[in-house]
From TrEMBL:
<feature type="binding site">
    <location>
        <position position="122"/>
    </location>
    <ligand>
        <name>UDP-alpha-D-glucose</name>
    </ligand>
</feature>
<keyword id="KW-0472">Membrane</keyword>
<feature type="transmembrane region" description="Helical">
    <location>
        <begin position="692"/>
        <end position="710"/>
    </location>
</feature>
<keyword id="KW-0328">Glycosyltransferase</keyword>
<feature type="binding site">
    <location>
        <position position="151"/>
    </location>
    <ligand>
        <name>UDP-alpha-D-glucose</name>
    </ligand>
</feature>
<keyword id="KW-0812">Transmembrane</keyword>
<dbReference type="GO" id="GO:0016760">
    <property type="term" value="F:cellulose synthase (UDP-forming) activity"/>
</dbReference>
<feature type="transmembrane region" description="Helical">
    <location>
        <begin position="21"/>
        <end position="43"/>
    </location>
</feature>
<keyword id="KW-1133">Transmembrane helix</keyword>
<dbReference type="GO" id="GO:0016020">
    <property type="term" value="C:membrane"/>
</dbReference>
<keyword id="KW-0961">Cell wall biogenesis/degradation</keyword>
<dbReference type="InterPro" id="IPR029044">
    <property type="entry name" value="Nucleotide-diphossugar_trans"/>
</dbReference>
<keyword id="KW-0808">Transferase</keyword>
<feature type="binding site">
    <location>
        <position position="290"/>
    </location>
    <ligand>
        <name>Mn(2+)</name>
    </ligand>
</feature>
<feature type="transmembrane region" description="Helical">
    <location>
        <begin position="653"/>
        <end position="672"/>
    </location>
</feature>
<feature type="binding site">
    <location>
        <position position="121"/>
    </location>
    <ligand>
        <name>UDP-alpha-D-glucose</name>
    </ligand>
</feature>
<dbReference type="Pfam" id="PF03552">
    <property type="entry name" value="Cellulose_synt"/>
</dbReference>
Length: 747
């Protein structure tokens, strides 16, 4: 049959399908019922405020605090419902791609961007392995270009890539011939999953070990010794570095390590392009962290290869499935979908090495899986920074009104003239990577990744959606990418404090989802974006419920209805209703365990008492111009002892940090108030504490959630335990807080 466009169009329908979640009808039914209960609760608070039972100032303050807390809970509840209204799960039929794209040569080219920023926090060997895993994709090699952005400006990282380019010439054909699935060599050689061990495997393994040894040696030494430099070309590359350069002050370095027009693998087949880029840095310019780095890569790649699709990856997110680009192409090449409906294809963030019960809730099942599926049934998932295939065009204005860049050579329509090694191409590439280049241009505002938030991913995705672009969530059974998840508790909380600052930067901006979002995307998606951008305000109700009812209990003051009061039923329904629905969804949709769900709800409360709170403070300080805190990079270095403790499910406190203080205080105060409540029950019987029952139950719940903190404070002796200084501080501040509360409740 002739392959005319109509036939192809028809066939493309088989490229992907979408299924609905089975529990959606229940969720849709439950939402209005729960809403009525929420309204009833708010009504109760308001009447209590206006017509108080007692006229004490403390009871007025308590009711007001609970009203505010419940208003925030109600708002966040509403934003969560958005994702429950029409969630879909897509599946791709990669085998049908060849019907639509008749020849391999028709597949669109992909420029892959990998960001790294510090050779000590992000070991170059890991970055190199990520690059190797994507260079070895099952995709025409001449249509693949890998760009590495090194914000560390480090010769150590370049050295690792020089070695990787040599190793790739063996590794790529090996993977292809043997249909290797794990194309990250560290994973392949690290797992003993019955790989055939023959002469060739042994030889490649030795080659890998030698590369690893050299790279690790160089990183440890902190410099590239002459003995490791091979030939005049390398001499020239490393000769560009000087001792005077620092991470924050150095010229542009662009090094073409592999060029698909000239470089061949050991079998004589072409190699993908591999290009190292370190943009110019100067201590007097703004660099906009990762967003800035990505915009430089957008321009540099435009001048060198300018392929229509761009894949962005964090340095730790390696490919776990060589068919991934073809999966993405099932959407990007689908003529039925249209470019405006597939501006980007987002894959979920998934991690390797998370412990059995996921004690830190590092899987982010909701944020990275359930909610994107929910949004996919509306206008598409939010962007999560890594594992995302973009149409280059999406960075240059809305689907209907393109924005022209300051020079046509960095635009999506530019046709690259020379080879990536040609003098004129390289000269232009250097120019567009200069730190003053963006002055008086639209980069970061109307073009490229947007500046203005620490979560440039969410921020940029939001702006693209508001411009009229739509996105796709691609969630195959086998994870397409796997990344590192921090295993030290302090690292986890610092990372999420940064996310919290970024979220506030979006929600409090002039283009907040609450206003621009709802206006441009409608109520549903507008509120959906509010969920992410108001994420840290959970800390308000969580902090209130972690302290206020407990302190009241200690003073014998009742803040919830009595057991015999009909309102008691409302409280029970609200609590159990949301918890049970949440548990049901967590365990069925993502097929997870009860223990993981339990840990997840615990971490939710812990976040409210740590990173959300601290992120909020940081945001205020930043807005006032007091703090200029930058991007605190998450360390990807693993301490073996820490890893072992983590495997056993132990929380890693270790360092004394103020971020642990509020949760430790909550643990202590809940314990004391629970003990106090139980004491009253034992001495006076239940009827004596009728009005305090819910407070006793809440304290008990707090105690259950704090078990790992008590263990770390009292029982453990290992280096990951709660530092004695931290415990002491928590006791002192808790005593002060309890005394203040007893004064307050006496009014
Ligand atoms: O100035 C910088 C800072 C960071 N990075 C890179 O950004 C990536 C993400 O940094 P990481 O420390 O791993 O932060 P995470 O919090 O783990 O990253 C999540 O959150 C970020 C937003 O805060 C998103 O950009 C990421 O994609 C998402 O995985 C890494 O590859 C870094 O090398 C840079 O290139 N330049
Ligand atoms: Mn990361």
């Amino acid at each position: 049959m002739e392959d005319d466009p109509t036939t192809r169009r028809r066939r493309s329908s088989a490229l992907h399908t979408a299924d609905r979640w089975p529990i959606t009808p229940f969720n849709r039914l439950f939402a209005p019922i729960y809403l009525l209960a929420v309204l009833a609760l708010l009504y109760r608070h308001v009447t209590n405020l206006l017509v108080p039972a007692t006229s004490s100032p403390s009871s007025f303050t308590t009711t007001l605090a609970l009203l505010v807390a419940d208003l925030v809970l109600a708002f966040m509840w509403a934003t969560t419902q958005v994702f429950r209204m029409n969630p879909i799960r897509r599946r791709e039929a990669v085998e049908n791609l060849n019907d639509v794209v008749a020849e391999e040569g028709e597949l669109p080219g992909v420029d892959v961007f990998i960001c790294t920023a510090d050779p000590y926090k992000e070991p170059p060997l890991g970055v190199v392995n990520t690059a190797l895993s994507v260079m070895a994709y099952d995709y025409p090699r001449d249509r693949l270009a890998v760009y590495v952005s090194d914000d560390g400006g480090s010769a150590l990282t370049l050295f690792a890539f020089v070695e990787a380019a040599k190793f790739a010439a063996r590794w790529l054909p090996f993977c292809e011939r043997n249909r290797v699935v794990e194309r990250n060599p560290a994973v392949y050689f690290g797992s003993n999953r019955g790989h055939p061990v023959d002469g060739e495997v042994e030889e490649i393994k030795t080659m890998y070990e030698s590369m690893k040894h050299k790279v690790e040696h160089v990183v440890e030494a902190g410099k590239v010794d002459d003995q490791f430099i091979d030939g005049p070309k390398e001499q020239e590359a490393f000769g560009k570095w000087s001792d005077k350069f620092t991470k924050h002050n150095h010229p542009t370095f662009i090094q073409v390590l592999l060029d698909s027009k000239n470089d061949k693998d050991v079998d004589g087949h072409v190699m993908p392009n591999l290009i190292y880029v370190s943009r110019e840095k100067s201590s007097t310019s703004q660099h906009h962290f990762k967003a800035g780095a990505l915009n430089v890569l957008l321009r540099v790649s435009a001048t060198m290869t300018n392929q229509p699709i761009v894949l962005t990856l964090d340095c730790d997110m390696y490919s776990n499935d060589p068919a991934t680009p073809r999966r993405a192409m099932c959407y990007l090449c689908d003529p039925k979908l249209g470019p405006e409906n597939s501006a980007f294809v987002q894959f979920p963030q998934k991690y390797h090495g998370i412990n059995e019960n996921d004690i830190y809730a590092g899987e982010f099942q909701r944020l990275f899986q359930a909610m994107p599926m929910g949004a996919d049934g509306l206008c598409g998932p939010h962007h999560v920074g890594t594992g995302c295939f973009f149409r280059r065009r999406a960075f240059f204005g809305s689907p209907s009104s393109p924005v022209a860049p300051e020079i046509p050579e960095v635009g999506p329509d530019h046709v690259v003239g020379g080879s990536v090694r040609s003098g004129s191409v390289l000269e232009l590439a250097h120019r567009v990577a200069e730190c003053g280049y963006e002055n008086q241009t639209s980069w970061g505002s109307k073009m490229g990744f947007r500046y203005g938030s620490m979560v440039e991913d969410l921020y940029t995705g939001f702006h693209l959606h508001c411009e009229g672009w739509r996105s796709i969530f691609c969630y195959p059974e086998q994870p397409s990418f796997l990344g590192d998840s921090p295993i030290s508790f302090a690292d986890v909380l610092i990372q999420q404090s940064r996310w919290s600052v970024g979220a506030f930067e979006l929600s409090m901006s002039k283009k907040s989802p609450l206003f621009m979002g709802i206006r441009k995307l409608g109520w549903l998606m507008g509120l959906g974006y509010c969920h992410f951008s108001f994420w840290p305000i959970w800390s308000l109700p969580i902090t209130t419920y972690a302290f206020l009812p407990q302190l009241a209990l200690l003073n014998g003051v009742s803040v919830f209805p009595k057991v015999s009061d009909p309102w008691f039923l409302l409280y029970t329904f609200l609590f159990l209703g949301s918890y049970l629905q949440d548990m049901l969804e967590f365990t069925t949709v993502s097929n997870s365990t009860f223990r993981r769900w339990w840990n997840e709800q615990r971490i939710w409360t812990v976040r409210g008492l740590s990173c959300f709170l601290f992120g909020g403070f940081d945001f205020v300080l930043k807005s006032l111009g007091v703090s200029t805190k930058g991007f605190s990079l998450t360390s990807k270095v693993v301490d073996e002892e820490q890893r072992q403790r983590y495997e056993k499910g132990m929380f890693e406190f270790g360092v004394s940090s103020p971020i642990f203080l509020p949760m430790a205080m909550a643990a202590l105060i809940n314990l004391v108030s629970f003990g106090f409540g139980l004491g009253r029950v034992l001495t006076g019987g239940w009827w004596n504490v009728e009005g305090l029952v819910l407070q006793i139950v809440l304290s008990g719940f707090g105690v259950l959630n704090s078990v790992p903190i008590y263990e770390a404070m009292v029982v453990r002796r290992d280096p990951g335990k709660f530092p004695a200084r931290g415990s002491f501080a928590a006791v002192v501040v808790s005593v002060v807080l309890c005394s203040l509360a007893s004064v307050m409740f006496s009014f």
